[in-house]
Specification:
Length: about 150
Amino acid sequence: MTTDVFTPEKRSAVMRRVKSHDTTPEMAVRRILRAAGIGYRLGGAGLPGRPDLVMKGRRVAVFVHGCFWHGHDCARGARKPKANAAYWTAKIDRNRARDEASRAALTAAGWRVVTVWECAMKADGFAERLVAEVRDQAAAVSATGSSD
């Protein structure tokens, strides 16, 4: 028995429209970095987790995460779907495990990982904090406790 309000065909069409790149939050992060004169590449092919943005010279990988899809601990991320709850809980748990494995692999390879959460983008001063985090390598390394 399903509690979905859509037919399987309609649900499939709706899910096909969910974008994995060029999302509104990702485009906003890209605009902020470009305005600050920070160059990047898209896609992160060949790197663990395929980061959304890569700054090879700075060895910075940026992930732009939607709070729901990646199980953030904010109000939107904590919201649990009522329909097909077991599927969504397992999917979000897998996403979180994959995100952590990607972060660990990138860090072990000497990359700094910056994760931008959709909800954090609404806060005052977000753009300045993002630019500072990408530019300020020494502060980021000392803040994580790593001295590689």
